[in-house]
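Late entry, written up from scratch paper. The run itself happened at the end of the previous shift, but nothing got recorded in the book at the time, so transcribing now.
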Amino acid sequence: MPTNRKIVRIGALLACVALAGLAWRERRSIQWVVAATRSTSHFRPSPIDARVFYEPGAETLARAVAEAMPRAVATVEREQFGAFDIPVRVYVCASIESLVRYGANSRAGGFTLSHRVFISPKPENTVERMPRVVTHELSHLHLGQHRGLWDNLPVWFVEGLAVEVSGGGGAEGVTDSEVRQAIAAGRTFVPSATGKTREGATANHLSQHLFYGQAGSFIAYLRALDPNRFASFIRAVESDQPLSSAFEHAYDTPLDPIWQRFVAAAKTSLNKAP
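Output as recorded:
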C-alpha cells in the first residue's frame, strides 16, 4: 500500500477514536446535567436536623446522618479553614437505584454533585461509619462551594483531603501499617500538582482503600509538616488557585521533593515499628 494511503487510513482511524471519546464525554456530561438538576422534592426533612432530607424507607440511616451533622460541619469548617458559603443540604437515599439516578457510582458510600450531598443505603454504611462518611462528603462540598467545579484538581488531593479531614472516611479497609508497607514496597500513586490528571486508584494499580489511605496519609503529613503553611495552601486552593502554584507558594518548593520526604518518612516509621 502506498505510504500516503497508509497515512490517510491511520488519520481516519485516529479521527474515529477521537470522535468516540468526544461522544462519550458529551454523553457523560449530559447525564451529569440531568442528575444535577433532578428534583429532590420527594425527600422528607429530618426532624433532628433541618439540613438532612431522606426518602421514605431511609429513616434509620437518616437519623444517623442527622446526628452526625453538627460535628461533621464543625470539623470541615475548622480543618478546611472557613465556613460553608451556602446552606448545607444532605440527602439520604432509600435505594442504590435512587443514588445512581442522582449521578453516583453504585458502589459509592456517598456522592457530592452541584452543592448536594447524597448518602448511600449500602450495607457498609453502618451507623458507626456515618460520621466519617458524612464528614468526607462535606469536605468535597466545602471545596466545591469555595472553588466551584474542582474537576481540574488531581484525585489524590480531593480524596486525600476528605480522608484526612474525616479521620479515615473512605480508607477504612486499610491500616496505617498497610499503607506504610505498600509505600516501602514502591506500590504507591505518584502525586501530580498540575491538575491535568484525574487518575485514581485503578490507574495507579491500587485498591480504592489503599489509594485513599495513601492520599490521606500524605495530606496528614503536609498538615503536620507545617500547620501554617498547610492552612495557606488549602486557602489558596479553595480560592481557585492552581494546585501547583498554591503548593509552591505555601511550601517554597515544588511538590515532588516533599513527596520524596514523605516516602522516606513512611519507610523509616515502618522500620522503627515493633
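Residues 38-148 form a domain with the Glutaredoxin fold (CATH 3.40.30.160).
(Scratch paper discarded after transcription.)
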